[in-house]
Write a structure and sequence with these properties.
With 163 residues, this protein is mainly alpha-helical. Helices cover 54% and strands 0% of the residues. Helix 5 packs antiparallel against helix 6.
């Protein structure tokens, strides 16, 4: 005669199977490339709806007039970090100034003043190649900030004079 399986063992096996199946990953359905899945709604999406035809203006209406350059101020956190970096720069603590400027750089790598303060620090530490490299990186970013652009160009001229 066959011994019946104890109910406690069946319960444990059932719990293990439930646990393992609950932890199994769920994969996305496989579809062939090039085929599009059927849409869930029957209404057309906004991208596929056709708009009414628009009259095309003549050449005079399509002229683009350049706008005046806008000086964009950096965000609050970057502005505070730059002020702190300039304070350390003026105090002669160039390493600390660079550390603060690098924090600002991680927040906004397109802010030209960050490159200016770092280039100024390296210039003061007579690390001219690094100063020149940073000034050159900041120059294209300073297009909308003429004051920083002029300072970067001035710094590059001073570096070139010392080389």
């Amino acid at each position: 005669m066959v011994n019946p399986i104890p109910k406690g063992l069946l319960l444990v096996v059932w719990m293990v199977v439930a646990l393992v199946s609950g932890c199994a990953p769920v994969y996305a359905p496989i579809s062939e490339s090039g085929s599009t899945p059927p849409s869930e709604s029957t209404s057309p999406s906004p991208e596929t709806e056709r708009s009414p035809p628009v009259a095309v203006p003549d050449d005079e209406d399509r002229r683009i007039t350049p706008s005046e350059p806008v000086q964009v101020a950096p965000g609050g956190a970057v502005r505070r970090l730059l002020e702190e970096a300039w304070r350390y720069n003026k105090a002669g603590d160039y390493d600390r100034s660079n550390a603060v400027a690098e924090r600002a750089l991680r927040i906004n790598h397109t802010e030209p003043e960050v490159y200016l303060v770092m280039a100024s620090n390296y210039f003061a530490m007579t690390r001219l190649s690094l100063a020149e490299q940073l000034a050159r990186q900041g120059l294209p970013l300073a297009g909308r900030n003429p004051a920083v652009k002029a300072d970067l160009q001035s710094l590059l001229a001073r570096i070139s004079a010392l080389k």
